[in-house]
Amino acid sequence: MHTSSFQQNVLEELDRELAVTRKVIERIPDDKFDFQPHPKSMKLGQLGSHIVNLLKFKQLFVEANQRDFLDQNAPKPPPSPTTTAELLTRFDQFSEDLRQALRESDDQKLTEGFQLRRGEQVLMDRPKGGALRIMGLNHSIHHRGQLTVYLRLLDIPVPGIYGMSADEMGGF
User: Fold this and answer.
1) Which of 54, 122, 151, 166 could form a Cys-Cys staple with 156, CB 3.0–4.6 A?
2) Carries keyword Calcium (predicted)?
């Protein structure tokens, strides 16, 4: 019988999702960073940066006990990349930082609480592992889905995510 820890399961899922997300980010053309499918939508470059910067947010869930959005001393995200190569460099670094934080954690630490706050207002209060899965992985998967729609609208072949894409199958 094979037993696996929660930490090991999250690392395995993270590795799979990161590999797929990297394939999607690789498709972003440098000359389309300003593409915006709707006035309420993020620009393509902003969306790509957000997906990458969420990796640091996930690391925070593992390493810290809280994050207050009103804390003026909290680290600010670095300036947004302006090329796909810069996005990928940051993605690779932030991915490795997150993996390392998870490897240094364990099931016990991942059951400790994490709060997302805005001053006195508690926006989220759950175990670190739950925060990582819900606000981390699921959040990134949501935005990766948005990114694939942007690619489709730009007629850029979409890589397979959970199986082959229509582009990989030759269309429908």
Assistant:
1) 151
2) no
- Long-range contacts, 107-116 (Cβ 8 Å, 24+): 107/5, 107/6, 107/7, 109/62, 110/6, 110/7, 110/10, 110/62, 112/65, 113/65, 114/61, 114/64, 114/65, 114/66, 115/65, 115/66, 115/67, 116/66, 116/67, 116/69
Q: The tokens of 150 are what?
A: 């942007």
Domain ranges, residue 59: 6-153
Q: Report the CATH number that the domain containing residue 54 is assigned in CATH.
A: 1.20.120.450
Amino acid (one-letter) located at 27? R
| Residue range 65-116, pLDDT digits in tens | 999 999 988 878 788 899 999 999 999 999 999 999 999 999 999 999 999 9
Judge whether 111 and 61 are in contact, CB under 8 Å: no
